[in-house]
Amino acid sequence: MARRIESHLLDGPAGKLEAQLEEPEDAPPTEAALVCHPHPLYGGTMHNKVVHRIARGLRRRGSVVLRINFRGVGRSQGQHAHGEGEIEDARAALDWLRARYPGLPYSLAGFSFGSKVILRLGCLLGDPAWLIAVGFPTKTAGAEFLNACAVPKVFIASTHDEHAPRPQMETLYTKIAEPKQLVWIEAGDHFFEGALDRLEETIVGLVEPVSERTQF
């Protein structure tokens, strides 16, 4: 089965949202995943190399993947809204994705700024299969809401992330509610310099975290 790639302009809260939908190559999808990009004001788009690798890793494990450009990026209408509006962009895109694939469980993934967006949205919704936060920027991201978020969460971090120093990430992680998992990848910087292949393979091999309190 050849991979189907579709371009869309979705209805969003601030106008049209540019999106790309990609299905797995070898079999019907088993999960629907929304992937969100890094900070729009610093060049972040759905074509970012880390976002591309996250999306490809998810497709390889069987997900149909929707990537969007947040408002004001690419062909998406509107203006940057400091994270709050972007959460609503993601919510609108997720609604479209779930309507398109109503029988599938869904997950959310994001890189850097996009990881903040998907964590906030996923914890508000409460019912994603899991949340995958890559390069969560601990220096600038408020994270208190994660202390009570019971949605399964995976954090993937670079060992040399200038926006999330390892000691800071490890301290934050101790406060985050179960179920959770933290995966370190030896990489040169926030953008996983020299380790994009390892990032993709990590995504492919992830196992959904289960709370220690519910393990048997």
Observed structural traits:
alpha/beta; 216 residues; 5 helices; Rossmann fold
Written description of the protein model:
The protein is an alpha/beta fold and 216 residues long. It has a single domain, classed as Alpha/Beta hydrolase fold, catalytic domain (Rossmann fold), CATH 3.40.50. 29% of the residues lie in helices and 24% in strands. It has helices at residues 49-60, 84-100, 113-125, 166-175, 196-205, and strands at 5-12, 15-22, 31-36, 63-68, 106-111, 130-134, 153-158, 180-185. The chain has an 8-stranded mixed beta sheet, sandwiched between helices. A hairpin with a 2-residue loop joins β1 and β2. α1 (49-60) runs parallel beside α5. It is globular. It starts with a strand and ends in an 11-residue tail after the last helix.
pLDDT < 50 stretches: none
Shape: globular
Q: SSE order in H/E notation?
A: EEEHEHEHEEHEH
Please name the fourth-level CATH homologous superfamily.
Answer: Alpha/Beta hydrolase fold, catalytic domain
Overall mean pLDDT: 95
Task: Give the N-to-C terminal Cα separation.
Answer: 38 Å
Tally of separate helices? 5
What spatial order of strands do you see in the largest sheet?
1-2-4-3-5-6-7-8
The top level CATH class name: Alpha Beta
Total domain units: 1
CATH fold descriptor? Rossmann fold
